[in-house]
Amino acid sequence: MELGLATREAYGRTLAELGEENPRIVVLDADLSKSTYTALFGKKFKDRFFDVGIAEANLCSIAAGLAAGGLIPFASSFASFLLCKGYEQLRICCAYMEFNVNFVGSHGGISLGEDGPSQMSIEDITLACCLPGFTVAVPADEVATAALVRAAAEHYGPVYLRVGRPRALRIYAPGERFSFGRAKTLSDGDDVTVIANGLMVAVACQAAELAERKGIHARVIDCHTAKPLDEATVGLAAEETGAIVVAEEHLARPGLGSLVAQAAARRRPVPMEFVGLPDAFAESGSAEELFRAYGLTAADILGAIDRVLARKGKGAAVTAR
């Protein structure tokens, strides 16, 4: 896999393209447009771009008002500010009203790095999933980001997308199609399933390669949409592999793992392991340092695979191959 664009840059570039195609699209930012790349849209469409300043709660309210007027707003800020400072407005002005408005949380997760824990969103996916009617997605690379931003523009209803700060490894070829609620199966192993989203999809693929060297065939699924979750694909994976590891750059409890566990429990309960952040704030550091420090590496996923296979009762059989 090669490094591609940061998903936040893919977001900004796609917005600028969409602006040419649909005059109803308007963009709002909270004084972070150079970081979120919405400045690309602002330079081309000055009359459809609104920088509200450092005021995420107002950002959400204004976006709701523009949606009420029939426009299609994309409102952006750092994920931690957008979800934490704007939650009341997201809840009442957008979710309760069922408005057609899109929110994009940039610099999501601990890969924000050196800016530190006050700006790291480690709970944004859960907060967004708790809002009734919201669609919640975490793209893995630039291709997925572009496709899901376009899907958000065409979808009617509130949407939350999380994008990241660092450049992302390229998972998908240009032109790959995405739909909300339809997960992507990246490899078809039958020993265990690794489910991930965002930057952790590439890490899950790396872990699957390490597992293959041990004779373990891992299925890898990109659950880019946390809500609605693709329960059919999760259920089939549970049925066919009998063990699941969930990997996410988010609090492990609750997070994508909790949603997957609910889906598996309803369809086929199986042993599960969870690779995510502990119940604590992370420290400051580079993304690579933090992923190692908080157990978000391929080796950590491989360890979870070994543990879940042991509980599945297949560890000995795999070792004997």
Explain this structure.
It is a single chain. The protein is 43% helix and 21% strand. It has 14 helices and 14 strands. The strands form three sheets. Strands 3-2-4-5-7-6-12 form a seven-stranded mixed beta sheet, with helices on both faces. The longest helix has 15 residues, at 7-21. It is globular, with a radius of gyration of 19 Å. Mean pLDDT is 95; it is low at 316-321.
Summary?
The protein has helices at 7-21, 33-36, 39-44, 56-68, 79-85, 87-96, 124-129, 142-154, 200-213, 231-241, 256-267, 287-293, 298-312, 315-319, and strands at 3-6, 25-29, 49-51, 72-78, 102-106, 135-137, 159-162, 167-169, 184-188, 192-196, 218-222, 225-227, 244-251, 272-277. Helix 4 packs parallel to helix 6.
Features:
321 residues, alpha/beta, globular
Describe the protein's topology.
Blueprint: E1 3-6, H1 7-21, E2 25-29, H2 33-36, H3 39-44, E3 49-51, H4 56-68, E4 72-78, H5 79-85, H6 87-96, E5 102-106, H7 124-129, E6 135-137, H8 142-154, E7 159-162, E8 167-169, E9 184-188, E10 192-196, H9 200-213, E11 218-222, E12 225-227, H10 231-241, E13 244-251, H11 256-267, E14 272-277, H12 287-293, H13 298-312, H14 315-319
Parallel strand pairs: 2-3, 2-4, 4-5, 5-7, 6-7, 10-11, 10-13, 13-14
Antiparallel strand pairs: 1-8, 6-12, 9-11
What sort of overall outline do the alpha carbons produce when their principal axes are compared? globular
Name the helix and strand elements from N-terminus to C-terminus, one letter apiece: EHEHHEHEHHEHEHEEEEHEEHEHEHHH
- Major sheet: arrangement of strands: 3-2-4-5-7-6-12
Structural class: alpha/beta
In which range does the helix fraction lie? 40-55%
